[in-house]
Design a protein that fits this description.
The chain is an alpha/beta fold. It folds into two domains: 4-98 and 293-325, Rossmann fold (3-Layer(aba) Sandwich); 102-284, NAD(P)-binding Rossmann-like Domain (Rossmann fold). The chain contains twelve helices and twelve strands. The strands form two sheets. It has a seven-stranded parallel beta sheet with strand order 8-7-6-9-10-11-12, with helices on both faces. The protein is globular, with a radius of gyration of 22 Å. The model has no long low-confidence stretch (mean pLDDT 97). The structure holds NADP nicotinamide-adenine-dinucleotide phosphate (NAP). Residues 77-78, 98, 101, 105, 154-159, 177-180, 209-212, 215-216, 237-239, 263-264, 287, 289-290 line the site of NADP nicotinamide-adenine-dinucleotide phosphate. NADP nicotinamide-adenine-dinucleotide phosphate binds at residues 77-78, 98, 101, 105, 154-159, 177-180, 209-212, 215-216, 237-239, 263-264, 287, 289-290. GO terms for molecular function: glyoxylate reductase (NADPH) activity; hydroxypyruvate reductase [NAD(P)H] activity; NAD binding. InterPro entries: D-isomer_2-hydroxyacid_DH, D-isomer_2_OHA_DH_cat_dom, D-isomer_DH_CS1, D-isomer_DH_NAD-bd, NAD(P)-bd_dom_sf. It comes from Halotalea alkalilenta.
C-alpha cells in the first residue's frame, strides 16, 4: 500500500499535486482554513507518513495525532509555525524553502523602503481623492533613499539581498547586525557590522529580516524606537512577533520614528481594531513577501521535491533539522 501524505492550508498546482500522486496517496485538506480540528484531516494525519503545506500551527498536539509521520515539508523558509524541538524529538524531518524566495522577498522589502520614504501610497491616495489642486508643498515632501544609511537586522539570505539593492542600486551605506559577524557579506557587499543599539542610532532605514524565535520575540519595542529617533523609517518583512506592536503604534503616533513599512503583523489577517493600516505614516501589506506566481510555484516545487526525497530516505535539498536528527 502506498504511503499517505496530507496537504494542509496551501493548495498545490495540479502539476505538483500530480507529482505527489505518482508516489503517494494524497489526502488534500488544503481547502480548509484551519484543518487542525477537522475529523477527516486528523484521521488522514493519523495514517500519514508525510505532510506538506504552510501557515498552520504545527505543535505537540498535532504531532501527537500523527504517529506515523516521518517528514513535514513546509512551503516557507520561516519555520516558526512548527515546534521544531518536538518534531526532532520524534525523529520527524522538517524541510523548508530557502533561496527560491530570497530575491522576491527582498523586492518586497525594498518596495516598502521606497514607498515609505517617498510617501507613495499616501500621495497616490491624495491624488485619487482629487486633492491635488496646486503644486506640492514641503509638508508633503519625502526623504531620499539613495545615499542614506540602511541598517539590516538579520544579515542572512534575504538581508543580504536587500543590502545588495541598497549598496549597488542606491549607493547606500549598509550597516548590519547578527549574532555573529558575516565576513563573506562584508567582503562581497561591503556591509559594516554594528552592535544593535549603534545600528538603530545611525540608520535612516532599519529593515528587519531575522527569523521569529524566543530570542527575537519583541526585539523592537519602546526603547529601540527611541534609539531610532524621529527621522528613521522602520521596515519589517520578518514576522509580526519580532515587534512589540503597541509600542510601534505609540512610536508612530507620537513621531518617535518617522514611518513604518510593514508586511507582517502579530495577528494576520489584521483585526479591524488594529490602527496600523489606517495610519498616515504606515504602508501596510498583506504578507506579500514571496507572493509572485513564479516564486510561489518555485517554493511549492521545492517543498514537493523535499517531501519525495525525504520519504525515499534521501537527503532533501532543504532539510531544516537534519543535524538535530544526527543524519550526517
Ligand atoms: P536566514 O538566511 O537564516 O537569515 C536570518 C539571519 O538572521 C541570519 O543572518 C542570522 O544570523 C540572523 N539572526 C537570527 N537570530 C538573530 C538574533 N537573535 N539576533 C540577530 N540576528 C539574528 O533566513 P532568510 O532566508 O534570510 O529568512 C529570514 C526570515 O524572513 C525568515 O525566517 C522568515 O521569517 C522571514 N520571511 C518573511 C517573508 C515574508 O513573506 N514577509 C518571506 C520570507 C521570509 P546569526 O545566526 O548570526 O544571528
Amino acid at each position: 500500500m502506498s504511503k499517505t501524505v496530507v496537504v494542509f492550508n496551501r493548495p498545490l498546482e495540479e502539476t505538483l499535486k500530480a507529482k505527489l500522486e505518482q508516489h503517494f496517496e494524497v489526502a488534500d485538506y488544503s481547502h480548509l482554513k484551519d484543518p487542525s480540528e477537522d475529523p477527516g484531516f486528523l484521521e488522514a494525519l493519523g495514517r500519514a507518513e508525510g505532510a506538506i503545506g504552510s501557515s498552520l500551527k504545527f505543535g505537540q498536539a498535532l504531532i501527537d495525532r500523527a504517529p506515523n509521520l516521518k517528514v513535514v515539508s513546509s512551503i516557507s523558509v520561516g519555520v516558526d509555525n512548527f515546534d521544531v524541538e518536538a518534531l526532532s524529538r520524534r525523529g520527524i524531518l522538517l524541510c523548508h524553502t530557502p533561496d527560491v524566495l530570497t530575491e522576491t522577498t527582498a523586492d518586497t522589502g525594498f518596495a516598502l523602503i521606497m514607498a515609505t520614504a517617498r510617501r507613495v501610497v499616501e500621495l497616490a491616495d491624495w491624488v485619487r481623492d482629487g486633492q491635488w489642486k496646486e503644486s506640492l508643498t514641503p509638508a508633503r515632501f519625502g526623504v531620499d533613499v539613495q545615499g542614506a544609511t540602511l541598517g539590516v537586522v538579520g544579515m542572512g539570505r534575504i538581508g543580504a539581498a536587500i543590502a545588495r539593492r541598497g549598496k549597488f542600486g542606491f549607493n547606500m551605506r549598509v550597516l548590519y547586525h547578527n549574532r555573529s559577524r558575516n565576513q563573506e557579506y562584508e567582503g562581497e557587499i561591503g556591509v559594516e557590522y554594528c552592535e544593535l543599539d549603534a545600528l538603530l542610532e545611525q540608520s535612516d532605514f532599519v529593515c528587519v529580516t531575522v527569523p521569529f524565535s524566543k530570542q527575537t520575540e519583541k526585539m523592537f519595542g519602546k526603547r529601540e524606537f527611541e534609539l531610532m529617533g524621529p527621522k528613521t523609517i522602520f521596515v519589517n518583512i520578518a514576522r509580526g512577533g519580532v515587534v512589540d506592536e503597541p509600542a510601534l503604534i505609540e512610536a508612530l503616533e507620537q513621531g518617535t520614528i518617522r514611518a513604518a513599512g510593514l508586511d507582517v503583523f502579530v495577528k494576520e489577517p489584521i483585526p479591524a481594531d488594529n490602527p496600523l493600516p489606517r495610519m498616515r505614516n504606515v504602508v501596510a501589506l498583506p504578507h506579500i513577501g514571496s507572493a509572485t506566481d513564479a516564486t510561489r510555484y518555485a517554493m511549492a516545487e521545492l517543498a514537493v521535491d523535499n517531501l519525495v526525497r525525504g520519504l525515499a530516505g534521501e537527503r532533501p535539498k532543504a532539510p531544516y533539522n537534519w543535524k538535530d536528527l544526527d543524519r550526517d
